[in-house]
Amino acid sequence: MTSTAHVDTFARDNLPPREQWPDLVFDLPHLHYPARLNAADELLDRALERGFAERTAIVAPSGLRWTYAELLQQANRIAHALVEDLGVVPGNRVLLRAPNTPLIAACWFAVLKAGAIAVPTMPLLRAKELTDVIVKAEVSHALCDARLAVELDNARAACPSLTVAWCATDAADGLEALARGKPPSFDNVRTAADDTAVIAFTSGTTGKPKGTMHFHRDLLAACDCWPRAILRATADDLFIGSPPLAFTFGLGGLLLFPLRIGAATLLLERPAPEALLAAIA
Fold first, then answer.
1. Whole-angstrom Cα distance, residue 135 to residue 132?
2. In the prediction, which pLDDT does 203 show?
3. Which comes out higher in pLDDT, residue 62 or 111?
4. Cα–Cα distance, 46 to 229 (Å, whole number)
5. Residue 33's CB: how many other CB atoms inside 10 A?
6. Within 10 Å of residue 185's Cβ, how many Cβ atoms?
7. What is the pLDDT of residue 271?
8. Domain ranges across the chain
């Protein structure tokens, strides 16, 4: 494995023995990733280098529309807030709790830019499930939509060291306020390709949810295999769907896959069939 950029080495320290890993084959030419790789840099910063700055990246039913340049600036400002105001260091686990919104997408990129590890959680999780995730992943920070505060507040009783920043709020100490005055540029942490970027928890249908670690290179490989060979979307496509970004299927299908090719995504907070059909229409 490549020398880690993580100061907090919890993730690498808790990987299973190498002999228990699946065979990971990166033999196709477009899967030859460099040893040092930050997925946020590849998916977002490099999009501007490819000429996508003024292309639409994220759309919301409210009419909000962010270009790639605007999404990058939002993510960079939040990354500054994470590091400078919340004390996040590379390798820290940062829990994300929100419906599908442009802001939580920017938060996801900000976490990776800061070299930390995103721990996305389903909005429907209750305090006990959140506590299990926080304890098992030794989560140090959380970014939570203020509308979902109650269950996380209840979970904090068992996790007193958890630092929380509320978002989707006008509060003076909310994430938006912290990020507002920050620079629109950020020096991404030069993570290793095999540094953990995301810890995604399984649904727990056959037992307690398990934290699955995904490296930075894995996120890119997920974009560069099936979507490239089978889906064959183009930069002119608009993605939409019902899965939450906290679910790896939603993270890929509604954020990573479109941004990898310069396309746009429409994020719905409540993707009921009627809302989904109306948005498609």
1. 5
2. 80
3. 111
4. 21
5. 19
6. 12
7. 84
8. 10-15+32-280
| Token representation of residue 61 | 């039913």
Say whether pLDDT at 95 is over 90.
yes
Selection from 143, 127, 140, 113 nearest residue 245 by Cα: 143
pLDDT at 204 over 80: no
DSSP letters of 46-60? HHHHTT-TTSEEEE-
Sequence-distant contacts of 58-61: CB under 8 A, at least 24 apart: 58/102, 58/105, 58/264, 58/265, 58/266, 58/267, 59/238, 59/264, 59/265, 59/266, 59/267, 60/101, 60/102, 60/266, 60/267, 61/266, 61/268, 61/269, 61/275, 61/279
Nearest to 41 by CA among 176, 219, 212, 226: 219
What one-character DSSP code corresponds to residue 17? P
Start-to-end Cα distance in the chain: 48
Inform me whether the pLDDT recorded for 258 exceeds 90. yes
Q: Whole-model pTM?
A: 0.96
Q: Which residues contact 84 (CB under 8 A, 6 or more apart)?
A: 182
Which of 2.170.120.40, 1.20.1730.10, 1.25.40.10, 3.40.50.980 is the CATH number of 10-15+32-280? 3.40.50.980
pLDDT in tens, 15-70: 999 999 989 899 999 999 999 999 999 999 999 999 999 999 999 999 999 999 99
Cβ-contact 211, 136 below 8 angstroms: yes
Partners of residue 97 on adjacent β-strands? 121, 144
